[in-house]
Structures are given as structure tokens and as C-alpha cells.
Amino acid sequence: MRVRQYLKESCIIFPIQGSSKQEIIRALAGKAALCLDDLSEEKIFNAILEREELGTTAIGRGVAIPHARVEGLNRLSMVVAVSPTGVPFDSLDGKPVHVIFMLLAPEGATPSYLRVLANISRLLKDRELISALKEVREVSQIPDIIEHAENMSYGALV
After folding, report:
1. Distance CA 132, CA 149 (A)
2. Which of 47, 60, 100, 101: disulfide with 81, CB 3.0–4.6 Å?
């Protein structure tokens, strides 16, 4: 399961801005609600906030992967956000976050949800990918950069 297959250009925030983790989550939830049509921003926001209360999903190195299962969602969905300057997200290393992949899944999607989450994690360990995303100048570059990183990691035919 390639990460790129879950990403639509209309579900990308660039540049994301905010002065708190809650503002960033609110922006992500708002974008997700626009992309999904059938779920409210509030429902998505609360699901992500509830997951964040268990522990931050900002894993360090400028990366955060907020994720949650959301009641009423019919398919896996993703919002990607990039901030060249960095935003607060209570990161484990205390540094600002530059790249955020928010994954939303239906309540019963455990196997596929965990596979995609693992693929996102693996992909975001690539320092070159993070650097390339921090350097983007327009939204349209982001899907191509992600696809290129996946091709380098998994091979173009996978």
C-alpha cells in the first residue's frame, strides 16, 4: 500500500501555519472535512485530539504523524501539511515540526490502517524526503516528491 495513493493535492496544506498544536490540528481537521464531505471538522478534530492525549505523534526530526480512527468514515484518508519554518506540535525532541501526515481511518480498518501508518513512518525516516519537502515552493511539488521517495524506497513497479 503506497502512501501516495491516499494523497490528493486538494488535501495538502502548504504552508501550514499556527502558534499551537491545537491550531495546527484544527487546520488539519478543517482540510480533512473539506476533502471528505461526510465528516465534520469537529468530529475529526476531537478524534485527533483524543489520540494526542495518549502521547504526542510528533516523533522528532521535524515530523508528526497524527492519526485516528473516526466513526462514520468509509475509507482511509490523508492530509499532508508542510511548514518550511516549522510549527509547534509538542515534539519528542522539542523542535518545531515541518512535515505532518495526518491519517484518518474507519473504525474497523485496523490491518490496512496499520500498514499505511507503518509505511508513512518508514517513509518519513528518509532525511532527504524531509529536506525536499521543507524546500517546496508550491503545493503541486509535494505529491511528486512523495512519489519519488516511495519509488526510491520500494521500486517504481511496486
Report:
1. 10
2. 100
CB 78 within 8 A of CB 99: no
Assigned architecture for domain 3-151: 3-Layer(aba) Sandwich (3.40)
pLDDT, one tens digit per residue, over 27-55 is 999 999 999 877 999 999 999 999 999 99
- Residues with catalytic roles: 67
Q: What is the DSSP string of 130-144?
A: HHHHHT--STTHHHH
E strand residue ranges, 56-144 = 58-60, 63-64, 67-70, 77-87, 97-106
Residues 105-129: tens digit of each pLDDT: 999 888 889 999 999 999 999 999 9
Return the C-alpha cell found at 5.
495513493
Give the count of alpha carbons within 13 A of 128, CB side only.
Answer: 7
Query: Which sequence spans correspond to the domains of the chain?
Result: 3-151
Q: How far apart are CA 46 and CA 137, in angstroms?
A: 31
Q: Grid coordinates in use for 38?
A: 461526510
